[in-house]
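Predict structure. Chain length: 143.
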Amino acid sequence: MDSSQPRIAAVDYGTRRVGLAVTDPLRLFAQPLGAFPPDEAVRQLQRLHERDGLATVVVGWPLLEDGTEGKATRRVEPFVGRLRNVLPGVVVVKQDERYTSQRAAEALVVAGVRKKARREKGRLDAAAATLILQDYLDEGGRE
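Prediction complete.
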């Protein structure tokens, strides 16, 4: 591991695909890592932790429109617990992810990503994870 500080990663959880993003070594910017089936996403995070170190994993927390928890948060909760078990010493935090998928879709349009490529669900999941992470960083979550 080099002299840079441990990274911060983010998760956009889905039952079929999990979008992942990670910070640069200075923890200033979020960048997409990809989208993976849930088990593979966990392995990716474990490898990232072994290679670069992870200080924090930010999990998108799908609150309802009114800010309360519902069915979607109950679906994500076991994954949060799993991350806490397989990444000892890594802080796992929940980040409000309302509107991130919509914002990610809009960002892909603005970036000039072709319509066919935007339909690739994994691309949207990774973009959503990137937004979750960037929101966390912008709110001062660089501990």
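Summary: Residues 7-138 form a domain with the Nucleotidyltransferase; domain 5 fold (CATH 3.30.420.140).
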